[in-house]
């Protein structure tokens, strides 16, 4: 078929990423009527409203620009659309009503407002939904239950006010759930709902909300998917996700923000073998569930800034892959489990500001920590703290009666002397020996 004038009939893939264009010239119809199916405009200087997309667009990545205005309505009119990445721009207005049409939706770090559309239909193919760092309000749409292929859900840093979405445990493939820095509240395991039991979950971040209550002792029993996936040589590799379309592979990254080893950082590439739980900055109380020790794949565990009480679970010794453990700013008591000192991957531990006592377990991974990680525990001793566990005991102060008796004895203490004379006809000399208490002579 001959090409009409102004149409790019055979151009399928356009990659303009990491260049310096800041706008478009010519008629917008050239783009709309082109045969382009994969378009990458990522990491440029584009500004202003976003142009209409090619009619047969399948994969679109325009992240990290300065696009403004609403996301075009035409986005919902492209039946072949699978991947939409518009993160790190300045888009405003509502989220499009057609999210169910896509497989990958990434709208992270814009200025989108309103509620999340409750428009997910049964059999929706969406796998990744990242709408973190916007100005969204309202509740999580219950129609997300229809998204049986959903693997990645991030709504972090918005204004969503809702109870914990325990109903998401029904999603059979959900691997990453981040709800941090919103207005979620209440219990995270309501009575009558059974075990939480996310079957495939590997990363759960619910930090900096208003969750409260205690964790049941068997809370983590059915978290079956937290098993480490390693390559044959034992190393962990960062894995990119790939979308294939007509034998063309397009690589994209799932991005989340995690607090790990005491630092808050954006993870630009989510590891398929990475496992993390972050409950920090809430109002949890009671004992830390012993069932946490079942999650042997955990790499990062953060329970800081809560009101947990009781002892540090001995079952933490079973977390042989653990690299980061933050229990700071709670009301924990007892001692630090000895076995934590032998966890070979534990690069960061923080128990600051609790009521822990006894000797800090000695091991290369622990004694190399900053002493600030152990401060705020009056009864704690040993390296890296300067307080020794073997310091000599100080003499107990005497009471007033004992001090008065001591004064009387000192007043009447006398000197004891013995005099030995040694003499002959020409000399007389003597040696004085004795024990002198105080110099009282009268």
CATH superfamily (homologous) name of the domain at 13-306? Ribonuclease Inhibitor
Query: N- to C-terminal separation?
Result: 133 Å
Task: Supply the CATH architecture of the domain at 13-306.
Answer: Alpha-Beta Horseshoe
Question: Helix fraction?
Answer: under 10%
What is the CATH class designation of the domain at 13-306? Alpha Beta
Low-confidence stretches: 228-242, 244-249, 414-442
* Order of neighbouring strands in the sheet with most strands: 1-2-4-6-8-10-12-13-15-21-23-25-26
- Tell me the strand percentage band: 25-35%
Structural class: mainly beta
Question: What's the story with the biggest beta sheet?
Answer: 13 strands, parallel
Determine Rg (CA atoms, Å). 35 Å
β-strand number: 30
Mean of the pLDDT scores? 80
The oligomeric state of the chains shown is single chain
From the spread of the alpha carbons, the general shape counts as elongated
Please give the count of helices. Answer: 3
Q: Write down the CATH topology of the domain at 13-306.
A: Leucine-rich repeat, LRR (right-handed beta-alpha superhelix)
Q: What does this protein structure show overall?
A:
- Belongs to the RLP family.
- This is Receptor like protein 27.
- Helices cover 5% and strands 26% of the residues.
- It has helices spanning 29-32, 364-367, 400-411, and strands spanning 13-15, 38-40, 47-49, 59-61, 66-69, 83-85, 90-93, 104-106, 111-115, 128-130, 135-137, 152-154, 176-178, 185-186, 203-205, 210-213, 241-245, 248-252, 256-260, 263-267, 276-278, 283-287, 300-302, 307-309, 324-326, 348-350, 357-359, 379-381, 416-423, 428-435.
- Strands 1-2-4-6-8-10-12-13-15-21-23-25-26 form a 13-stranded parallel beta sheet, with no helix packed on it. Strands 3-5-7-9-11 form a 5-stranded parallel beta sheet, with no helix packed on it. It has a 4-stranded parallel beta sheet with strand order 14-16-22-24, with no helix packed on it.
């Amino acid at each position: 078929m001959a090409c009409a004038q102004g149409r790019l009939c055979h151009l399928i893939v356009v990659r303009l990423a990491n260049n310096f264009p800041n706008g478009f010239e010519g008629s917008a119809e050239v783009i709309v009527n082109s045969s382009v199916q994969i378009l990458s405009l990522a990491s440029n200087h584009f500004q202003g409203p976003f142009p209409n997309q090619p009619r047969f667009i399948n994969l679109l990545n325009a992240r990290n620009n300065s696009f403004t205005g609403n996301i075009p309505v035409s986005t919902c009119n492209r039946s072949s659309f699978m991947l939409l990445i518009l993160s790190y721009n300045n888009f405003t207005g509502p989220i499009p009503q057609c999210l169910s049409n896509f497989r990958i939706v990434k709208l992270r770090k814009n200025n989108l407002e309103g509620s999340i559309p409750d428009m997910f239909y049964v059999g929706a193919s969406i796998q990744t939904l990242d709408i973190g760092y916007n100005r969204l309000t309202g509740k999580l749409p219950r129609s997300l239950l229809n998204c049986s292929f959903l693997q990645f859900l991030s709504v972090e840093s918005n204004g969503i006010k809702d109870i914990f979405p325990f109903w998401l445990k029904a999603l059979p493939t959900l691997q990453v759930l981040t709800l941090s820095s919103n207005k979620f509240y209440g219990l995270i395991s309501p009575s009558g709902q059974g075990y939480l039991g996310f079957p495939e979950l590997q990363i759960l971040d619910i930090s900096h909300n208003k969750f409260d209550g205690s964790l049941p002792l068997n809370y983590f029993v059915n978290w079956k998917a937290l098993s480490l996936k390693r390559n044959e040589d034992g190393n962990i590799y960062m894995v990119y996700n790939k979308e294939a379309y007509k034998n063309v592979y397009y690589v994209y990254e799932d991005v989340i923000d995690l607090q790990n080893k005491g630092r808050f950082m954006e993870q630009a590439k989510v590891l398929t073998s990475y496992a993390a739980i972050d409950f920090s900055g809430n109002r949890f109380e009671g004992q830390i569930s012993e069932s946490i020790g079942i999650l042997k794949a955990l790499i990062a565990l953060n329970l800081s800034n809560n009101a947990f009480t009781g002892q540090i679970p001995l079952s933490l010794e079973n977390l042989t892959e653990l690299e980061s453990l933050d229990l700071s700013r709670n009301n924990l008591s007892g001692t630090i489990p000895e076995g934590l000192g032998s966890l070979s991957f534990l690069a960061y531990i923080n128990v600051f500001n609790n009521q822990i006592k006894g000797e800090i377990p000695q091991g290369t991974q622990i004694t190399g920590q900053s002493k600030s990680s152990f401060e705020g525990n009056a009864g704690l001793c040993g390296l890296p703290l300067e307080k020794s566990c073997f310091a000599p005991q100080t003499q107990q102060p005497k009471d007033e009666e004992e001090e008065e008796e001591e004064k009387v004895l000192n007043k009447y203490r006398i000197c004891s002397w013995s005099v030995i004379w040694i003499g002959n006809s020409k000399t007389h000399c003597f040696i004085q020996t004795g024990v002198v208490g105080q110099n009282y002579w009268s």
